[in-house]
Each structure stands twice: as C-alpha cells, then as structure tokens.
Amino acid sequence: MGAADRVRAYYDALREGEPLAPFFAPVDGAVKVGISERLVGGDAVAEGLREQTERTTDWSVGSRDLRVTERDRHAWFGDRVSLAWTDTERRIRYEFDTRWTGTLELREAPDSSADGVDGSEATPAGEDGATTDGGSADPWQFVSMHVSTARDL
Asked: Which residue, 11, 22, 21, 19, is CA-closest to 60?
C-alpha cells in the first residue's frame, strides 16, 4: 500500500468510526490541526482522536481532489474534502467544505534491519495493543495533518 492508499484508508476509518490514532506516528513532533483544535505530540494526537471518535458519528468524507507525492521515506498530500459528522453530545450536525494537507513518514518496526530490506512491514503494537499502522501491514504514518475550512474572506 502506498501513501495515497493510506490517506484513503484514513478517510474510510473516519467514515466507519474506527480508531484513528494508529494512523499517526507516535512521536513528539506529530501535529494534527483540525477545524477547531491543534494537537501536538503523539500522545495528544492519540487522545484527541479517541475523544473525537467517542463523541461523533455519521461521518461523510468526500474526497474531491486528492494529490499525493511519494518519495523514498516521506510523502505529502493535499485534498479538497466535503466533510460532515454529528456531534453526539451537542446533537448538532456539522457540514464543511475543507482543505486537507499533511505529511506521512515511512516507518519501520524496531526489529527490522537498518536498511529495511528484511521484508518486514509490520509495526509495533502501541500502548492500547493496537498496531501503530491502523491494523494493516502498511508502515506509512501521518506525522502532520492540517484540516481547515475553505471560506472566502
């Protein structure tokens, strides 16, 4: 699976209400900026995404212009996404036209060889027992993501 497939898998997980934290690298430098929050550090990103999943439902994620550039160990993407969800605590349906950008890093399991040629694509289990790659054999993980609304000034 390449970086573009990884972005699409994230969209799918969001739609399905699946855990999102495993898509992000568990590193201090991870940054996720959403419409109404800024999360810095792997722990903060993971906690913020867990809380989001717990209090939201009925996600609609419509990618309209996904563009991904992939290099040896890094990739970046941009997209225009129609985004909607229901906040279950406030009982409000939100709908936005959004812009997404982000960076992914190709990460290796700690027990893989230094040059990455041992064929291992699995990543280690996180604190909650989930694999850090969203449960797949894909080592691409987000290290930054920015989602903003597209509003005219």
From this structure: 11
Q: Higher pLDDT residue, 41 or 125?
A: 41
> At a CB cut-off of 8 Å and minimum separation 6, what does 65 contact?
78, 79, 80
Cα-based distances in Å from 103 to 23, 31, 87, 107: 12, 10, 27, 13
Q: Tell me the pLDDT tens digit for each residue of 14-29.
A: 999 999 999 999 999 9
Alpha-helix runs per DSSP H in the chain: 3-16, 42-55
Tell the residue number behind the tokens 């509003």, with chain if given: 151
Distance of CA 135 to the CA centre of its chain: 13
CA distance 128 to 125: 8
pLDDT recorded at residue 153: 54
What's the one-letter identity of residue 11?
Y
- The residues pairing with 100 across neighbouring beta strands, listed in sequence order, are 79, 147
Task: Convert the pLDDT of each residue in 95-137 to its tens digit.
Answer: 999 999 999 999 975 444 434 333 333 333 333 333 444 444 5
- List the structure tokens of 139: 């080592």
Tell me how far apart the alpha carbons of residues 68 and 103 are, in angstroms, rounded to a whole number: 10
**69 - beta bridge partners?**
76
